[in-house]
Amino acid sequence: MIKLCIKLLRFFDYLLGWYQVVIYLISIYTSHRKKILIVDLDNTLFDTWPLLRLKKSVFHSSPPILAGTLKFVASSLNADTKLIFLSHRPSSCYRYTLNLLQNIDNFSKVDFQLYFVPKVTYKKMYFKVANSLFDEVWLIDDLTYNHEFGEVLYYNEIIEYVRRLNIKYFDYKFILNINKKRHEFSK
């Protein structure tokens, strides 16, 4: 019974992921803005890996905000900029995450959209659509994982994909630098 429930939840996440892609496409096509800023959440806007290391629930908690990233995102916004938060998180924490973002002073009065993907590789679809429809695409995303286990690993395939597109990519090193953090657990 438990295995069936897990399979159903995964299938629901999969369907929700595709539903969000459709909503994203409609939103993009109806946007009259010239620039899009796509922002990841975990280890980019929120300092989530320490919570993972402590085995705390990251997705239903209020992780510390990385002040440098927050300042960068806020200073990058103008009337011609569409703001998208795109993260690999379970769909069950969508409302909680949306409320969390809406309660951050810098975003409380900003028209933004939040999308979750069931697999990190699905982000490539969002990047490709944005790249084809906007004059300027900015992406701030660490595209890393495994922090809590002592060795930071990179989603190299996705990073290479982003670099082939006409996207201004702000990577993990940039995020560490603006937040004055060292490379955690580097070997």
Task: Examine the secondary-structure arrangement and name the CATH architecture.
Answer: 3-Layer(aba) Sandwich
Q: Please state the structural category.
A: alpha/beta
Q: Main β-sheet: number of strands, strand sense, barrel status? A: 5 strands, parallel
Write down the secondary-structure element order: HEHHEHEHEEEHEH
Low-confidence stretches: none
* Number of E-type strands: 7
Instruction: Note the total helix count.
Output: 7
Q: Classify the fold: give the CATH topology.
A: Rossmann fold
Question: In percent, how much strand structure appears in the residues?
Answer: 15-25%
The share of residues in helices is 40-55%
Work out the radius of gyration.
16 Å
Mass-distribution shape: globular
Number of domains: 1
Averaged pLDDT: 83
Instruction: Name the CATH class.
Output: Alpha Beta
Going across the biggest sheet, name each strand in turn. 3-2-1-4-7
Distance between the termini: 42 Å
Question: What is the CATH superfamily?
Answer: HAD superfamily/HAD-like
